[in-house]
Design brief:
Elements: E1 2-6, H1 11-22, E2 26-31, E3 46-49, H2 55-64, E4 69-72, H3 79-84, H4 86-107, E5 111-117, H5 140-159, E6 162-168, E7 170-172, H6 190-198, E8 205-208, E9 220-221, E10 223-225, H7 226-243, E11 247-251, E12 257-258, H8 259-270, E13 276-279, E14 288-289, H9 294-300, H10 309-322
Parallel strand pairs: 1-2, 1-4, 2-3, 4-5, 5-6, 6-11, 7-10, 8-13, 9-14
Antiparallel strand pairs: 9-12
Helix pairs in contact: 1-7, 2-4, 4-5, 6-8, 6-10, 8-10
Bound molecules: uridine-5'-diphosphate.
Length: 329
């Protein structure tokens, strides 16, 4: 199949492109390279550098390529930043995807896999979280993704565009060959920051809050390997072609680790001292997010391969050791 991957130079996007190509698909990538890295784009993918908010650009991509389905990762994704810059998030994440859907409608492309998030749930009432949990986002990032999910629902009804929204829990790890991995600037995510401390690139890791209602007072998250996320997108495309039914799926391992547990596990994996200090809570952070991915396992026939935190951190560590400056090396 010919798949258009928007945001294919970003972290999860680039891993999905590698996985798609490995499975024999042809890939067209759109990325504005404002967060993504040109070096992260697979050599066999056809890269268009441009922005989803530019309709003329999008029309050109759809005119020049016969696209069977779209996977959309192109978005800002930092919880903290979204709280201080909500308009920036709604403009890029919501308006950008609306423009993409307009171009798809024009080009008669009727299938999309959308990159959503556990942040759509906010502070959940039930753990593990299944897809029936209420959506009350506690930050503009989660709200922007939920808004797009709603836009997609109406586009399905009106135009027959079938969609699958994948609500990721916490992505981590790197590609098996060591060619691509996680590289954000500024880095705000827990595991890469911990590993930067292990590398001596940072003095210490700040633990954001020790007064949450969790096992040790620090936030609990469900960490899922990035290639497991990537494989779910391919399963989602297959499902869209097979059943022509839209749906929403959680993707996680179903186990929660506190910030302190993640730090401890990283100390074990890296065999290095990793200094930590307790700081204030970060605005917008829910205390506990753990997925029930039962629906994805049953309906998408998806199965995560990396189901232990140590393996996930090992995979990330390998990337960081070999690329201490990310793609700049
Ligand atoms: N976190 C932390 N220190 C950091 C970065 C993150 O204590 O320097 C915590 C954060 O508050 C959250 C968890 O680690 O509870 C995971 O945060 P991350 O930014 O990696 O992902 P998010 O859950 O926001 O998608």
């Amino acid at each position: 199949m010919n798949i258009l991957v928007c945001g294919g130079a970003g972290y999860i996007g680039s891993h999905t492109v590698y996985e798609l190509i490995e499975q024999g698909h042809s890939v067209v990538v759109i990325d504005n390279l404002c967060k993504g890295h040109k070096k992260a784009v697979h050599k066999e993918a056809k890269l268009y550098v441009g922005d989803l908010r530019d309709s003329l650009f999008l029309d050109k991509v759809f005119e020049e390529n016969k696209i069977d389905a779209v996977i959309d990762f192109a978005a800002y994704s930092l919880v903290g930043e979204s709280c201080s810059e909500p308009l920036m998030y709604f403009e890029n994440n919501v308006f950008g995807t609306i423009k993409l859907l307009e171009a798809m409608k024009k080009a008669n492309v009727k299938k999309i896999v959308f990159s959503s998030t556990a942040a759509t749930y906010g502070e959940p009432e039930n753990i593990p979280i299944d897809e029936k949990e209420k959506n009350v986002p506690t930050n503009p990032y989660g709200e922007s993704k939920l808004m797009v999910e709603k836009v997609l629902k109406w586009c399905d009804k009106a135009y027959g565009i079938k969609y699958i929204c994948l609500r990721y829990f916490n992505a981590a790890g790197a590609y098996k060959t060591g060619e691509i991995g996680e590289d954000h600037f500024p880095e705000t995510h827990l595991i890469p920051i911990i590993l930067q401390v292990a590398l001596g690139k940072r003095e210490e890791i700040s633990i954001f809050g020790e007064d949450y209602n969790t096992k040790d007072g620090t936030c609990v998250r469900d960490y899922i390997h990035v290639t497991d996320l990537a494989s779910a997108h391919i399963k989602a495309i297959e499902k869209l072609f097979k059943d022509e039914v839209s749906g929403i799926y959680n993707l996680g391992n179903g186990t929660g680790f506190s910030v302190k547990e993640v730090i401890e596990c990283a100390r074990k994996v890296t065999q290095r001292e990793i200094k930590a200090k307790i700081c204030e809570r970060r605005p917008g952070d829910p205390s506990t997010l753990i997925a029930s991915s039962k629906k994805a396992i049953e309906e998408l026939k998806w199965q995560p391969k990396f189901n232990c935190l140590e393996q996930i951190i090992e995979s990330a560590w390998k990337w960081h050791l070999n690329h201490p400056n990310g793609y700049e090396d």
